[in-house]
Amino acid sequence: MFGRVPRRSNNTKYYEVLGVSNTANQDELKKAYKKAAIKNHPDKGGDPEKFKELSQAYEVLSDPEKRDIYDQWGGWSQGGNGRRQKGSKSGTPGTCYGCHGIGMRTITRQIGLGMIQQMNTVCPECRGSGEIISDRDRCPSCRANKVVQEKKVLEVHIQKGMQHGQKIVFQGEADEAPDTVTGDIVFILQVKEHPRFKRKYDDLFIEHTISLTEALCGFQFVLSHLDGRQLLIKSDPGEIIKPGQHKAINDEGMPQHSRPFMKGHLFVKFNVEFPEASALSRDQCRALEKILPRKARGQLTDMELDQCEETIMHDVNIEEEMRRRQYQRQQEAYDDDEEDAAPRVQCAQQ
């Protein structure tokens, strides 16, 4: 009435066939099997019986349930040949019989008279995974692909004071894949340039142009800040602004990251706009000479003028002039290299 208990036999043979210890994990078993299977594959001149033993050993040890039984009872020495099961009742993938777990198949084709070619191709049955599961045991959601499509919305919160190039990391939110650690999704901030404000770390920079009169007599103007506030900026009484001069306003820069109540500086660079050559009459120039501080040196005498050579100044774009001169120097250096490379004429020997 009751089934016969199988006799215990050698329970280390399969491990010895694969060349691993009985404590080997699934990754170690898979690597050992693939290495031995490639070496002993019949298509590559290997021993068919040895390859059969490898496949049988890996089929048992790669299935946790079968391995547990094998570790307790070993190989069952009972008559008859057991029928192989394809797939697994528990949904655990089994070894693909099309490629014997390698994931690749070797095909042979004739390319000419008496010439054949062997090439490896991805196994069409397991699609290169080396594992297969029967249709009745497949998960209805993933169809044995081990992953499913899912749409998820991530909210990215940009905190005050975050810098250009700073990263916001969502750990473990990347696409998942079987038997791998899920990666992260990383957002890298790209700060869009502002037409007037320039940012450098926690400080802000702007340029403002004032007239010569404002530079000498004082100025005030209203600046619309990034947060919508209106800032009144004015010079101190009696202050004279020089061209290219910078002034700083504390605590009007960007908020510091993680310390939003601490702010950088706002730097203002002043450009002074001078009047055109024809804007002042001779009488106005004389009036300015009386108002402004006296010249460091008065008019030159006739004797001093006779000892000088008169020059003529003209307008110039200094950046364009420097680029032109640099190009000219490069051309001269190129011409010198060509002259050095030319063969020299030597006198004939008698």
TrEMBL record:
Metal-binding in keyword set: yes
Keywords, ordered alphabetically: Metal-binding, Repeat, Zinc, Zinc-finger
Boundaries of every CR-type domain copy: 63-151
A Pfam family that the UniProt record links to this protein: DnaJ_C
Zn finger (CR-type) location: 63-151
SMART domains membership: DnaJ
Region spans: Disordered: 73-92, 323-350
Protein name: Uncharacterized protein
Species per Swiss-Prot/TrEMBL record: Eleusine coracana subsp. coracana
GO terms under biological process: protein folding
Entries under Gene3D superfamilies matching the protein: DnaJ domain (1.10.287.110), Heat shock protein DnaJ, cysteine-rich domain (2.10.230.10), Urease metallochaperone UreE, N-terminal domain (2.60.260.20)
